[in-house]
Amino acid sequence: MTDTPPIRVLLVDDHAVVRRGLLGFLELLDDITVVGEADNGRSAVEVARSVRPDVVLMDLLMPEIDGIAATATIKAEMPDVEVVALTSFVEEARVTAALEAGASGFILKDAEADDVANAIRAAHRGEVHLDPAVAGLLARRVRERASAAPGQEPLTSREREVLGLLAHGLSNKAIADRLAITERTARTHVSNILGKLGLASRTQAALYAVEHHLAPGGAEG
């Protein structure tokens, strides 16, 4: 048995049947507990302020305030709260907007229950979890962006190190620990990488690293 407290999750979806289904499954898991529910973006922000979850499972298409705007507000006010976007279909503009708003994962509503749980766990660890369809879409977009901008400013050797660690899903703190630098410095490196490569999120940077073979080996060691 472990003394690690369960991951505290807020469920946000405007369809009660979806929330009931997710709740029914997540209640069976020892390492995840649902601490709140919301049926629109405005309520999601209010409940998040109240219960301070570790992870929000956020539907994107909702009344009042959509999931993208709610995600941006939650991440601005509570940066330690991770958001996993939940959607019925893959649409590039919506995916990109959600990632830019701060979502750290993307899962489709028809995903297997275990995949939803794994996405929650990955987000809680500060890692990225993408549905394969979303990952494929973003990889294509990164390839197109890279080929269209061959004259981009090169990365420094340190930035290439950071990018490689990003590709393995490491958080800023984990990158800082690995490279013996401050977390603030790691955050600056990540920001510089995104700016130089013209990317919108850590997820896109990770995909760029994989596409350009800048993530050799594993994150351990």
Q: What would you call the shape?
A: globular
The number of helical segments is 10
Q: What's the total number of strands?
A: 6
User: How many structural domains can be distinguished in the coordinates?
Assistant: 2
Instruction: Write the H/E string, N to C.
Output: EHEHEHEHEHEHHHHH
Structural class: alpha/beta
Name of the level-1 CATH class of the largest domain = Alpha Beta
Major beta-sheet overview? 6 strands, parallel
What does the radius of gyration come to?
A: 17 Å
User: What percent of residues adopt helix (DSSP H or I)?
Assistant: 40-55%
Q: What fraction of residues sit in β-strands?
A: 5-15%
* Strand line-up across the major sheet: 2-1-3-4-5-6
CATH architecture of the largest domain: 3-Layer(aba) Sandwich
Unreliable residue stretches: none
Mean pLDDT reading: 84
CATH H level, superfamily name of the largest domain: Response regulator
Overview of this protein structure:
- 52% of the residues lie in helices and 14% in strands.
- It is globular and about 50 Å long.
Question: Which helices and strands occur, and which strands form pairs?
Answer:
Blueprint: E1 7-12, H1 16-26, E2 32-38, H2 41-51, E3 55-59, H3 67-77, E4 82-87, H4 92-101, E5 105-108, H5 113-124, E6 129-130, H6 132-148, H7 157-167, H8 172-179, H9 183-197, H10 202-211
Parallel strand pairs: 1-2, 1-3, 3-4, 4-5, 5-6
